[in-house]
Batch of 4 targets.
Target 1
Amino acid sequence: MLKQKKRDEHNAIIDKDDGIIVVKWVDNNDEHNAIIDKDDGIIVVKWVDNNVVTAASTCHGIHPIATVKRFSRTEKKIIHVSRPSIIMNYNQFMGGTDILDENVSNYRISVRRQKWWWPIFTWLLDVSVVSAWIVYRQFAPTYISA
């Protein structure tokens, strides 16, 4: 295997194998990791916030790395932590999935059956009904107002 190690502009260590790139950087004594598969275009990032956060994507990367403020319990003050772009994009657009999950849990079909496929079928039905209701609410005022 071909191995190359170098540092980028954020002082991150880049370790290149034949098909995988491993990026490691340290910020405020916390180590962050990213693994990039060049063949499939998948990036997996492990980032330490208050807890460990792991995210995977095929369209977002780690650059640009932004700085965010977090309260450190050990130092008892606000510190600056670097945040990869993939985490920023997840935080920006996560609301739709959370709303869908909340609505599905509130309006769940609760019929018990012995078949293994029944929970999958009812979940698909629940998600379809909730999604249709969201689309109806979005476009109904334009059609009903006439």
Target 2
Amino acid sequence: MKKFLLSTALLLVLGLSFTSCRDTKKAEDAEAAVEAAAEKAEEAVEAAADKAEEAVDAATEAAGEAVDKAVDAAGETVDKAVDAAGETVDKAADAVKDKIKKEAGH
């Protein structure tokens, strides 16, 4: 009877030790899988942040170019308006001179 109890206890201890070793192996595998998933998620977040930064940079550059073009166009319009105003003043001055000549000639 004593041998039977000791044998049973020995079998239980051996069974538990193999079971517990197997569980820790699964836990280690699960932990490694979680770490790998976390690393992939971190890489994905970093990649998304990089893409967002590139998009902001491109939008800023495009806006700057649009402002530059608008400034250039406004400058050209002002130059044309100044030229047109100068021509109108010249024509008015010529008309006044012609009118004065006509009046002085009569």
Target 3
Amino acid sequence: MSTKDNSPDKSTGTNCRNARNQPHASDLTHFQVNILIILAEEDKYGLAIKRDLETYYGTEVNHGRLYPNLDDLVEMGLVEKTELDKRTNNYSLTSAGEHLLRNRAQYLVGSLDLEVSPRGESESNAVATDGGEM
């Protein structure tokens, strides 16, 4: 797993990494966050990720868009890439990727004033803080 340097972003001149040099959600595109969300469910190979993205977006996702973004996520330490065979790579969410998604979810939930049940609880038990069902 390679680590990216902590130099300022060339496009903005800013650096959004936290004190532990981990990427921040603002460093990622929505497309990259969607890849992380897909990998949070289970490890997948590239074409399975592509199919899930196509289902979500309702349109074709080009290889030329998917694989460079996967490589960027690997370089950031958010995704681990392993070789299944000579032509197929498997991708999995790292603990840093999971941490980033958890922080992003907590931010969104806080912004919407909702409560989230831990993974594994049924949705029928999840209730918004205003008392309404989700």
Target 4
Amino acid sequence: MPGPARRAPFSDLLRQHVVALGENSHFIDEFAALRERLLRYLVERCGFTLLAFEYGFGEALPLDAWARGEGSEDSLAGHLAGTIPIGVEAPLRRIRRHNRTAAAPVRFAGGCAGTSTVTSGLGAL
């Protein structure tokens, strides 16, 4: 059947510059699977080059470097130690694999003040 019903999934995203994906609850496996599939589509089909997460800005800097190839595969665990496991490991691993051969690497950014910023200010209270 021709027409809109036959379009590729997410085809409307091809014209977008920013796609925001929210979630009403963390730690839901199905949501993580959908997010990973959507990330793959946006990077491979739409040319997106930034993944921003609900993650501390400062804490995301070493993760961005890792995703662009710095450090060993195993060093990701050290970067994530002591953080809340919000499902960032699988997308980072996908980005790192993609970046090995990508003309335009995908970057990782945190969009929150972060835990280090919040906890460092608690001593003044």
